[in-house]
From TrEMBL:
Residues forming the catalytic site: 510 (nucleophile)
Start and end residues of each stretch annotated as Disordered: 40-72
One Pfam family this sequence matches: tRNA_U5-meth_tr
Annotated InterPro entries: MeTrfase_TrmA_CS, NA-bd_OB-fold, SAM-dependent_MTases_sf, TRAM_dom, U5_MeTrfase_fam
Name by which UniProt lists this protein: TRAM domain-containing protein
Natural source organism: Protea cynaroides
Amino acid sequence: MATVNYCGFRCLKSRPWLQNVRSYSSSSVAASCSLNSPHPSSSFDDSEAQGPTTTATTTSTSPATPDRSQSFFPKRGQTLELVCETLAFKGKGVCKVADTGFVLMCDRALPGERFLGRVTRKKGSYGEVQKINTISPHWDFVDAPCEYASHCGGCKTQNLLYEAQVKAKEQQVHELMTHVGRFSNEDLDFSMVMKPIVSCDIQFHYRNKMEFSFSTKQWLPRDAMKGEQGGENSFALGLHAPGFFDKVLNVEKCLLQSEAANMVLEVIQNCWRDPPLGLSPYDVRAHTGFLKHLMLRTGRDAKTGSQELMVNFVTSSYKPELLEPLIGKISAIPEVISIINNVNTSVGNTSVGEEEYTLHGKSTITEILRGLTFQISANSFFQTNTHQAEVLYKLIEDCAGIRGDGSEIVLDLFCGTGTIGLTLARRVKHIYGYEVVPQAITDARRNAELNGIHNATFVQGDLNKIGQDFGDEFPKPDIVISDPNRPGMHMKLIKFLLKLRAPRIIYVSCNPATCARDLDYLCHGVAEQNIEGCYQLKRLHPVDMFPHTPHIECVCLLELA
Ligand SMILES: C[S@@+](CC[C@H](N)C(=O)[O-])C[C@H]1O[C@@H](n2cnc3c(N)ncnc32)[C@H](O)[C@@H]1O
């Protein structure tokens, strides 16, 4: 087990980039989502920021002692030869400076890759480098099929063999569970508790939802820059360039979405800039322009199983006449059954509008999951990889270990549109679902009705703000399912669960760092608050829901100790 000091703070010296997980979790406010992502907020001071100095040729073969790493401080602008050892959160490569163990994180460095990197930032006991050029490629190199792979922020690991991608994700979960979750290697005996990662059989075209942005500023990778800036030629429709809120990489085709969605994207790309149409992209700095986002959602007809598509234009004002020429073209694609317009007049750049209009066809599309039919509106949460959601939900059901005699009560926390609870409802007595988004609760109730499920109650409420009376309105559950978003569970909810002592908790997580922290609290307690843990981690399944991206899902089974 990792060392624990008397304040309950874990010793993470050997994993400096994890330090902020601890400081975050001790704050008891699950509000940040930048866990263990080394996003240094400070850079070197001026004396250090003098630009390139010496070039230190290093390798990372020997992990050094923490003491030596503390005496080594690279300078901003310094060039180092590094080897990437492994991947950490957000897919950043972990590289250590030879003979010091000093950790430098590098975006787009892949395990085994030897490269020249320039130090850009330092925070505490680790730093960040920008890759200048690769000296020798990483192990398991494959050609990336997508032309945007090396620039787009979406798929960062497309040219790493898929088997190596999942192995790196599995290692990351193991690291976090031991160093943040404080589970020892014996606790995590692979065959007993931590299961091998579940790969995704479909590695492309798996996303049922993609959101593209319109922009006045097209982002061009450095090698494509020809001094072209500004003017109409620089309009873009695509994905935000990593780190830029105002620049967009123009994307003609995305290999993660369905072929039908790519057809729509192509039609729109071919005409939206035509001057006679009078369409302008929204300028996020000047707050002018009309087109903000294009969201494409792919579902399936419940009867025929054939693909159906929703196209959602997010605009800054309601001017349907401006969209008419585009609607004419895309409604000719047989899969398009719904064209929606979300009007978002705020200066914020979210895709949820204050008003929603159906411009063509239906207001929802359908999707089938574990034999149930779900109606999905433009802004409802729905698992974005339907194929792998089948696998995920099957694992959840296995972990729930439902007796099947219809006697059990299930509490579905962070229920979204109710999908997990509804897929279990037929075998239990009652489902109680809690969720903060009112629209999702409306959808959950409608989905229950649509599937003839009458033993499910969905309640809108903020699980970060539960009071002492939370729990009065439902009987003690036999099974709790908790599927929070990235920040994980609030300390209030952790305390509630530790007091509730339900026999089983199934914790579903999309962020292994907060997952490890919350499992630690539930199993080992919260020492700084004198709270004892009362659960045992029985099973942990990492699941790859999003090939080529750094995201990792986990399904964890906890039983009352
Ligand atoms: C990862 S999604 C899970 C949704 C659902 N379980 C599923 O599988 O489709 C997390 C959900 O938690 C909801 N949520 C986020 N913060 C919340 C809070 N403070 N209280 C209640 N629900 C919250 C989000 O709106 C979202 O629907």
